[in-house]
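Input record (one chain):
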Amino acid sequence: MTIVLQTERLTLRHFTMADATFVVELLNSPNWLQYIGDRNIKTVADAQSYLLQGPLLSYVVSGFGLYLVELKDSQTPIGMCGLLKRPYLQYLDIGYALLPRYEGIGYGHEIATATLQYAFGFLQQEHIAAITSPGNQRSIALLDKMGFYRNGTVNPDEKTELLLFIKDAKTL
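The corresponding structure, as predicted from the sequence alone:
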């Protein structure tokens, strides 16, 4: 297992195929479905395909991607966080999601802040983008707290309008 970084309470590590059951749970959690969307990942086989074509491929092609967030002490998986290169964004995009029972405890802020430090330091990025659904007040509040500034909207497809946020390395 490749560890990307650790914080006081959390570990950010590469996904493995053994994480497929967790991926099914996370991608079907209520907030994921409401704010990110149904990825039609209903079985372990679906999750394995998602991992192969998504995070695992991204590690090879880009050198980064979405990573598993787990509790440092127990190695319990609680979510994902990482960086994505989206064709409709100028900068790398930070993405994060936690299982509902781990929200509101500060884990999102902790892992997203560490991921930003990784992006600005190790990956030497000057800017990081973040996108979120206009109704996702929890995500908007976290981005505001982390010092992102609002930069309009983006339309990744004809049906969706997302809020665009940017953070500069010099404001970390």
